[in-house]
Write a structure and sequence with these properties.
2 domains; Rossmann fold; five-stranded parallel β-sheet; binds flavin-adenine dinucleotide; 14 strands
Length: 318
């Protein structure tokens, strides 16, 4: 195998895909692992001790998919990289599609892992049907573009031998952008459920928006973030989409997940399958959430939650 190229619009995220890239390198005998940073030399320099063989800094516009995909494709050609590995994030997914058409690569997004098939070809694993089964995809092209599911890349690569990378600087001509940015603003995000260690989530068992306060008090008592099921966002519009847990929301992996008035349909359950401990409060003892919960309380949330909050608060105040 030729070299493996790693790219991430957020440079700090690149070391998270390095464990999987090292595995691909050793299984397929890839020449080198390269990391590409576009536009910010300082960010590129920070990567020299992360464990890749070479850091490539390319000057140019690093914010737009059009220019980034052009530069990535040119770097792959110049450095004879056959495989592009990125974290599965919205910008990177767009880059994956654009680069794979430019270099005629097999492309698969949101992969869980990469492994070698019996005949030596590369197999990528990906969740299907909301995580009910795992599909094995054989990527047969000589060039491959994959994005890796964030929950499969939670560990940063430990460069225990402290190998320093070589550093190259490049300038590539890119086509002029057809659009002009006249104004930019930061997207307001108040919560990052992906990295939350404790989450207390509400579902349709909550009768009205004002009642969310009862659950918020419980969340505050244990230092948890507030999450929710889809109807709370889509149907009632009581909370912002960033708080939705599940297949089309955020896949979370907290130490503690408390599901309150949530039935536990598959699209929600798949989003919490990596939670270490799941506690469910539901007035229906047959609710599917109890099949995946470690601890369950069958009861009316309007009675259970305030009592639980008071009990926990008393422990915290001790
Ligand atoms: C393509 C697709 C993608 C989807 N993606 C997602 C997703 O990302 N996340 C997601 O959550 N859903 C998603 N859904 C929707 C999903 O199928 C369920 O409809 C949704 O999760 C149900 O939300 P819920 O559990 O809050 O509501 P319900 O299923 O209505 O459950 C409410 C629960 O509250 C309990 N309850 C009622 N009153 C009380 C009370 N007083 N005390 C205690 N318990 C009470 C009930 O017993 C019930 O179990 C998706 C669906 C589709 C088709």
């Amino acid at each position: 195998m030729a070299s493996i190229l790693l790219y991430g619009s957020n440079t700090e995220k690149i070391p998270y895909v390095l464990n999987e890239a090292k595995k691909i390198q050793s299984e397929f005998g890839a020449d080198e692992i390269l990391a590409l940073v576009i536009g910010n030399r300082e960010d590129a320099q920070k990567l020299v001790n992360c464990g890749v063989d070479k850091v490539i800094f390319a000057s140019g516009e690093g914010k737009f998919p059009e220019t980034v995909s052009e530069i990535v494709a040119k770097v792959m050609e110049k450095y004879e990289a056959s495989t592009l590995v990125m974290l599965n994030q919205p910008f990177e997914v767009e880059i994956a599609g654009r680069v794979s058409t430019k270099i005629e690569a097999s492309c698969l997004t949101d992969c869980l892992a990469i492994k070698k098939d019996g005949d030596g070809s590369l197999i990528a694993e990906k969740m299907l049907y909301g995580g009910v089964v795992i599909g094995n995809y054989k990527l047969t092209n000589n060039s491959i573009v994959v994005t890796l599911n964030e929950n499969s890349c939670r560990e940063i690569y430990k460069n225990e031998e402290n190998n320093l990378s070589t550093f190259s600087e490049e300038t590539f001509e890119t086509k002029p952008l057809k659009k002009k940015i006249t104004q930019t603003r930061e997207i307001e995000q108040t919560v990052d459920l992906k990295s939350s260690r404790k989450i207390v989530s509400i579902g349709r068992g909550i009768n009205k928006q004002e009642d969310i306060g009862i659950v918020e008090q419980l969340a505050n008592a244990i230092g948890a973030q507030l999450g929710c099921s889809r109807p709370i966002v889509e149907d009632f519009k009581w909370l912002k989409p960033e708080r939705q847990v599940g297949l089309t929301g955020t896949i979370v992996a907290p130490d503690l997940y408390v599901a309150i008035g949530i039935s536990g349909q598959i699209q929600h359950a798949v989003g919490i399958k990596d939670a270490k401990v799941i506690v469910a409060i539901n007035n229906n003892k047959n609710a599917p959430i109890f099949e995946i919960a470690d601890y369950g309380i069958v009861g009316d949330l309007y009675e259970v939650v305030p009592k639980l909050q008071q009990a926990l608060q008393a422990v915290v105040n001790k």
